[in-house]
Amino acid sequence: MLTIDVCIGSACHLKGAYNVINKLMELIDKKNLGDKVSVKAAFCLGECTKAVSVRVDNDTVYSVNEKTLEDFFNEVIMERLGE
Prior knowledge:
- The chain has helices spanning about 10-15, 15-30, 70-80, and strands at about 1-5, 35-40, 55, 60-65.
- The chain is an alpha+beta fold.
- It has a 4-stranded mixed β-sheet with strand order 2-1-3-4.
- The protein is globular and about 30 Å long.
- The two termini are about 15 Å apart.
């Protein structure tokens, strides 16, 4: 299972972390990936200047927002899933 950690620390919270989480959950449901992808809230990922910080499988930390989230999902998450 692929794990996506979304920072909910102060900077990320102010930049819309909960909107990012909700949108991720919508994309996962829309693509029927609930058994392949898990979204978790995480406290500071150490990349506050990248807010909203998102980490995939304890690997790279990405900077996303509501506008870039769908592209991030299609380019990073779907590619890692091989879809």
